[in-house]
């Protein structure tokens, strides 16, 4: 299998086999817009199921409990509300503190009674109260502020590094797409959003940009002098770059997702709900989405932005014209194996290596 | 070609780094007091969710029995969070409980000092500004230079008057008169100059306008100006000598002359100067606040964002003199409302009277003496300047005309003022041990997940990259060792604590670190596909991969730094982990993976592209014709044939084989001549005939082959 994969990598690299990703960009754009719209609708219609860290909840304290294990409390809460994740901790030696989502008055009474029974204490030894959010609005505000500053700075850094704004814009749009779709999936599935999932979401931020920067770096390399030759158009050169980095993208994603998947597996199946599952789930979704977007959204978007510039449009027209004159068929057509003469290959002119290529005297 | 030792140099450097990290931790843990929780050890400190800690339940009480609103509780939580973050405790959890209590959970043991810091009442005071300075400490070199200059001028160094020409002239407060400093408040009352609020870096820049005068510049220059940062002792000595106004060698807190009013420069006692010189507002621990108790004494305080430092006179008004504050919009000269946010303050009758007196005095002073500082919880949240007396007990604070407040900034300031108008004290209801919320099970399972993930990553990289998987394994091991060592160091020095999200982040970093190896490997393969020899591909692929890795890691580091400095609580912990793992990724790729590749490619297994090395050129479909010397190129098929039939014998072996073949041929000839059936003899022994064939071909194409072999192995 690995051999076939490497051979696919070879074929994609040399252009023997090529998927027309940039050319079919309209399809990807429509898909992305639909996904984002769906996420928006889900977000508005269902909203996010935020955890007690964000909206506060109910708290019970059992004093003088017979046992301080968390088992009885979890059983009690499962009997009352199934999707509640109880945070149980021992306070001061023989008291048990149980935090859960906001309960109604009736439920509170019921839980307090059951808890007293479960921990073998008098009903009066169980006190209930409600707690405010530990992840308050001020933390969210600061995080959002940091995010906005980061996005602005990253746009500037990328625009300087790639020396074009179109790549920075495309990368940011792809990033926003990843975040919105991940959050939308959360809303759709109805998983609880905890601080751990927010942190997972922030990790995707870095991951998505990492992926996109790697692909764009290849695009930049392939298209460095694209306007100075008349063999390939910009779109073809950038499509070749995506094809050449597909194997790398898949490999990095698999390697990145494997640890996440194992955490998700352990978290969800061995432990049930909790921090591990929350953080791994948002990462799992986000990584898959961001890998897909770095291939199918970022580069086609970049090419589309590029093609709005007259210089690139004229260049494409000229290349196609010359090709028609010489009687060659359009190069980018099928994804099948194609003969050598029809391949789009990177046109990197040779350079003189100077004295560095000369043998050195041994010292 | 570079020698082996120079290639291996980064590896030695990395080894040294690892030894240094673990050596430091080892020495630290050997000498540490076992009772001391923050000491060095070979197990990292764990955060609240994994280890538990101490839970304090606080009840805020207003001194004057006023009712406490939920906004006050929120504000109190923000202040406690600032105190806790400032004291270096990682990821405390602060919630409100039952609408009237505040629950603070702190990882590990809590000492009396921390409790005192958290429960200190948050008081708001208004004090006149005596001097504004840069946030850093004094620069001993500048002091020495100033003293030398003063001595050569032969002035009296023991002058009693601080304003006299003496070594202290460099910090003469009157020299700070700067005509550009007072911002024009137009029709408004206290004109804004420094809304030194943490959320507004631009405002804070305005705050540092005042000390831009060369006189104060000399007094407290940025410590970074010195070539080497001065030690604490040097700063202390320099501050002592500069603050010692009467030259008796001791620092006194008594004013030299009796101050006539709170703005009197006589309040700048030796102690105040000393504090002003030694307080380093750039350090977060000095911005924890909470110490503003002596109402009649002067104070040295920082702005919450650490961009300015103030010497302040005694308290003139307290928070209880203020009834309320709110965000409003500035009225234009015609009375019409504009959209420029300002903060409106209302004083009590008594407070309004006091404020009128203060502003009357301040408005006639020069900058920075015309500023009054609003000190909340020991930090200067705002220091507006006054340019006219304000008699009616109502005042407005606005941003400078060039850089007005944002809505959010004005609201924040108004909230802070409101909170300050209600002096709260925190009563400790209970202080109890609290167990971990997640328990050891989660951590163990997390570790298990990490181990499974690691095995999967290794399995996949062996499958995909064959022999190169070894490079991945070794690099991940090195990255893991570095990360663990750094976490040990940080939990010792910085009080860093590992939470479950932190552990998860580290596990995920396994995959992300492996990403950069893949980028590198793929680049090498690309270069091999281009037809480069393996050694050249490693060098060339590295140059290209390095650029990509640097660019993408730079983005991650940027994210980490920004989130670390702006966000609070859990996000900050995450940013820290992200930055740490990204930097380690860079260090490992540059100092380990690349040198290791360069060494491995010299071995026969990797260098000649063995089938299982992951670098097999045929397998990778090197499809470009390669230069074969003498103006000829060789196609892929030819190259493959050469690799398949490579003659690995030495010249001596080949000559020996040739000689043997010739001898056998001659023998056969002799046999044939002697009448035996020739076919049978030539066919046996089989091995020998093979050699003959080989030898023949070699003789025929000998010269070309020699140059080919050189080409392939270079």
From TrEMBL, chain A:
Any one GO molecular function term: protein-transporting ATPase activity
Function summary: Part of the Sec protein translocase complex. Interacts with the SecYEG preprotein conducting channel. SecDF uses the proton motive force (PMF) to complete protein translocation after the ATP-dependent function of SecA.
Any one of the GO CC terms: plasma membrane
UniProt keyword list: Cell membrane, Membrane, Protein transport, Translocation, Transmembrane, Transmembrane helix, Transport
GO BP: intracellular protein transmembrane transport; protein targeting; protein transport by the Sec complex
This protein's encoding gene: secF
Main location: membrane
Name this protein carries in UniProt: Protein-export membrane protein SecF
Highest taxon in the source lineage: Bacteria
Chain segments annotated as coiled-coil in the UniProt record: none
Residue span, Protein export membrane protein SecD/SecF C-terminal domain: 118-306
